[in-house]
């Protein structure tokens, strides 16, 4: 995992912005194929997600290993506020995981 993954996982929006302004890659995948946006969605961190989205994070990026979208992660983890934020930004509910499941 990168420092950006850690900042997203710990819900540190100001650190996310600093890292991205300093040249960090927006969507690096960790060993499981998750981006910082996926980690923030799993953890329910609305502020981190808002920061990542303001910098252009891809809200429909499918994780490498399981093919989960950030919306899929948020709904599975029952983070309704995160799911609402992603939907307001245009996350697609029709995307399927590698197992053929949609977020809904």
TrEMBL record:
Keywords: ANK repeat, Repeat. PROSITE patterns: ANK_REP_REGION (PS50297), ANK_REPEAT (PS50088), HIS_ACID_PHOSPHAT_1 (PS00616). It comes from the Eukaryota. ANK repeats lie at residues 1-31, 32-64, 66-98. Pfam families: Ank, Ank_2. InterPro entries: Acid_Pase_AS, Ankyrin_rpt, Ankyrin_rpt-contain_sf. Belongs to the histidine acid phosphatase family. This is Ankyrin. It comes from Aulographum hederae CBS 113979.
